[in-house]
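Collaborator request, handled under Task 6.
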Amino acid sequence: MHSQVQYLPITPGLFSVLVLLFAGLIILIQLRILRYAYMRLGVGPGVALLLLFGSLVGSYFNIPVTVLPGKAVRSGEIVDFFGMRYVVPLVTQWPGTVLAVNVGGAVIPTLMSSYLVLRYQLWLKAAIAVIAIAFVIHMMATPVQGVGIAVPVFAPVVVTAILAFLLSREYAAPLAYIGGSMGTLIGADLLNLDKIGNLGAPVASIGGAGTFDGIFLTGILAVLLAGIASPARPREVW
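Structure tokens returned to the collaborator:
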């Protein structure tokens, strides 16, 4: 069963789009066009690329947590939602809905967000950003049969960047990353755990199918938007 829990959260074609986006960011970083945006986040270009690459590769891996009893699961399908195509993995002899944590969409963003909060001591402002964005995402989140909880991909991006910018011009970039990633995880996945068991999803991955694309794009693009708008005050990077 463990091997069947590992799968790409979206179709190979759409995943290739994210890979192309990643390749474009590599070019921009190498040309130093995005240098100050990432310096405002508190990481260097090398760490930024490692963060992006880890999120993409880590999206394939899920860490099983528990099994939720529920109705018969769907298997081996492609589900369309707001223009995105999510993968329902092909499974056999399945006991119910496996609740898992996605490495690229949950573990890495949580670790990075924790680092940013601790480094810049953004306890109050980060909490406000996460709560506000979680509320917005929760209003947008939709239970999707066979997949779990899904959210529209692009709508939260601008909201995240604007809110982070309003909370702190100086720390808009880290607040955008924290609010965008943690707000999506909490608003879409954690606040809807009670609905997952009835969706017939073989795997309900926190930060995986249904939310990974939103977390990846919201976290990264919101950082870029906020970084461009924030003051040109380079920070020490690692």
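The cover message to the collaborator said: "The first strand starts at residue 62 and ends at 68. The chain is about 55% helix and 15% strand. Please let us know whether this matches your experimental observations."
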